[in-house]
Amino acid sequence: MATTTADRRMIKLAMSAPYLEREEEQALAQAWKDNKDQEARNRIAMAHMRLVVSMAGRFRNFGLPLGDLVQEGYIGLLEAAARFEPERQVRFSTYASWWIRASIQDYVLRNWSIVRGGTSSAQKALFFNLRRLRARLARGDAHLTSEAMHQEIAAALGVSTADVRTMDARLSSSDISLQAPISSAEGESGGSRLEFLTSDAPLPDEQAVDSIDGERRRHWLHSALGQLNEREMKIIRARRLTENGATLEELGILLGISKERVRQIENRALEKLKAALVSKTTDFAYA
Length: 287
Hints:
Elements: H1 2-16, H2 22-35, H3 38-47, H4 49-57, H5 66-83, H6 92-111, H7 121-140, H8 146-157, H9 161-171, E1 181-183, E2 189-192, H10 204-225, H11 230-240, H12 248-255, H13 259-285
Antiparallel strand pairs: 1-2
Helix pairs in contact: 2-3, 3-5, 4-5, 4-6, 5-6, 7-8, 7-9, 8-9, 10-13, 11-13, 12-13
């Protein structure tokens, strides 16, 4: 009730602010621009608070407090007052409308849902116009299917039908906390939704062990490879350490030896690696 009373008081104050004639408005704007006269800027802003209240009222269907919408609109109004150029001979209300609307829309997008949406200009247009267009299409043709309605809205706003479908689903439902309890048919609490979320990813301690063990194994392998001579290293790299290993025949031609000799060298190199790795693991076990 206190918030409602405050809102009414604010609206009453805004509606009682005196209008400015064009000449007076121009003089105040010029005083702000030339001399940074704060009083002149504040008078311009207060004279147009009714515009803020009127525009804030258009966004009440998003479920946000009117007082917060008015405050955000007032921020846009002050920004417009600071940027207004009187020499353009445009009424301040015309110029300020864009800033007020933009400030309120940004606030709605940031606070309407936990999930941020409408980051692009097309998405913003979809967010703020979807309900209006859907209602208008429904009045024009009561038998229009949802898919046909989505297609017409997509064409009107220049977005994809999938975007319209997704936004329509978001606007038709509210956020649900994962911490909220789930009630059974008998009215008993069955835990929270968070408890039913599963993940195939390893647990944090398993990830830490895999990272440490993986680094240790890489170090052991690098050390073991140091036991091989140049030709053994070349064969092991070509045969075992590449995605598409070379054949014995290909390596035989490359090294100028028979494929049987390549096989023998490979087996000897693998025995060296095995011995070196066994030695490392044994040393680690007794460390």
